[in-house]
Design a protein that fits this description.
Blueprint lengths: L1 H12 L6 E5 L5 E6 L2 H4 L6 H13 L8 E6 L3 H10 L3 E6 L24 E3 L4 H15 L1
Parallel strand pairs: 3-4, 4-5
Antiparallel strand pairs: 1-2, 1-3
Helix pairs in contact: 1-5
Length: 143
């Protein structure tokens, strides 16, 4: 989560919402790191999670990433949870809940939906205070 927080701080420095993500392989190796970039890339899909998945898929030469773990500073949204499920990521570990867009626990519980053909393990609250405070800092500066 420390590396994800570092990515979030880089995103903050670039004027983006401070979200960072790190995708780790089965052996604990870092496959990808990314921070939010939708503003800089003019791309509504350029969330940290999506960018990390794209990097790892390119590295592996496969859009399926079974057995991997994603560490992200905030609860993923619907789009990102959908991408994690399609990529067959094993577990998502996140810091702060997202009561306005969270799709793991807060608004929806997509990872545990039995109607889907893949499940995603969810661990929440890892370094939650640091993750939440970084987001609060960003939004307070905007007001």
């Amino acid at each position: 989560m420390g590396q994800a927080l570092a990515q979030a701080r880089e995103a903050l420095s670039a004027g983006e919402v401070p979200v960072g993500a790190v995708l780790v392989g089965e052996e604990g190796e870092v496959l990808a790191r990314a921070g939010n970039r939708p503003i800089g890339l003019n791309d509504p899909t350029a969330h940290a999670e999506i960018l990390a998945l794209r990097q790892a898929a390119a590295l592996r030469g496969n859009y399926r990433l079974p057995g991997t773990f994603l560490y992200v500073t905030i609860e993923p949204c619907i789009m990102c949870v959908g991408a994690l499920l399609h990529a067959r990521v094993r577990r998502v570990v996140f810091g702060a809940l997202d009561p306005k867009a969270g799709a793991c626990i807060s608004l929806y519980r997509i990872p545990e939906d039995s109607r889907l053909n893949h499940r995603l393990e969810v661990v929440s609250g890892v370094r939650e205070t640091e993750c939440r405070e970084l987001l609060q800092q960003f939004f307070q500066a905007r007001r």
